[in-house]
Write a structure and sequence with these properties.
The strands form 3 sheets. Strands 2-4-5-7-6 form a 5-stranded mixed β-sheet, sandwiched between helices. Strands 1-3 form a two-stranded antiparallel ribbon. The chain contains 8 helices and 9 strands. A hairpin with a 2-residue loop joins strand 6 (164-170) and strand 7 (173-179). The chain folds into 2 domains: 27-187, Muramoyl-pentapeptide Carboxypeptidase, domain 2; 199-242, Membrane-bound Lytic Murein Transglycosylase D, Chain A, CATH 3.10.350.10. By secondary structure, the chain is of the alpha+beta class. The N and C termini lie far apart (67 Å).
Length: 244
């Protein structure tokens, strides 16, 4: 009898734990689905995007300015990207995300694929893929656990905002992100507008130091350096700094 009671108790405890895990993970997922792929494809058609056929088609669209060259910088790098082009909104997304990612994790974001015409799609790609339109990017999965958590949280948050769809792919491992151009650009404009309304600037005078400015504006030296992308504590007279 005691053995049966212990067994029942163990089953009940397991069910309770399973229920708690289900609640904890209800906030979002990067598993992806056919519905997600269909949504990405519908967005491409809604924006009247052309699905590029081959390399010459890609280069033609680049010359016309429909897609723009993505140049690596200190925040991100391109790894074996055959066609380093993207729709303007996607390029903006990569540059903004990479800047935030490097500041948060100390790592560079690594882009592994951008515009990919039909002729260069892998054999296992979906017929719904929007890579041929230039509105999708693949990102390398970091080996750093905290960096993965940061990026996955940001992608899920942006997915909730309705500006993109993100999937954590397994073969090969990477994050696939399709950015919805109009929605994302509107989202960024709203962010910049709010930031401009609440930002505070200071024109550096003789004798000013970051420590003194941090105390005056009730902030920190680190926050001022991040806002102004300063690598050191050196500031010069006449320089305009964002202090909030």
């Amino acid at each position: 009898m005691m053995r049966m009671l212990r067994l029942r108790h163990g089953v009940v405890l397991s069910l309770l734990l399973l229920a708690s895990w289900t609640v904890d993970t209800s906030g979002g997922s990067l598993k992806g689905s056919r519905d997600s792929m269909m949504l990405q494809n519908r967005m491409a058609h809604r924006h009247d995007y052309t699905f590029l056929r081959n390399p010459s088609h890609v280069h033609k669209f680049a010359k016309l300015g429909y897609i723009e060259k993505v140049e690596p910088n200190r925040d991100f790098e391109l790894y074996q990207v055959s066609f380093p082009y993207a729709r303007p909104a996607l390029k903006l997304f990569i540059e903004r995300l990479a800047r935030q990612y490097r500041r948060a994790t100390g790592e560079k974001l690594v882009v592994t694929s951008l515009t990919r015409p039909h002729s260069h799609q892998p054999h296992n790609s979906s017929s719904l893929s929007v890579h041929p339109t230039g509105m999708a990017v693949d990102l390398r999965i970091s080996r750093n656990r905290s960096a993965r958590r940061w990026l996955e949280k940001v992608l899920l948050d942006l997915e909730k905002e309705g500006v993109l769809e993100a999937t954590k792919e397994r073969r090969p491992p990477h994050y696939h992100v399709a950015v919805f151009p109009n929605q994302y650009e509107s989202y960024v404009r709203a962010l910049e507008s709010r930031k401009a309304r609440r930002s505070v600037t200071h024109k550096v005078a003789r004798g000013d130091t970051l420590w003194e400015l941090a105390r005056r504006y009730d902030t920190s030296v680190g926050a001022i350096k991040r806002l102004n992308d300063l690598r050191s504590g050196d500031i010069r007279v006449g320089q305009v700094l964002r202090v909030r």
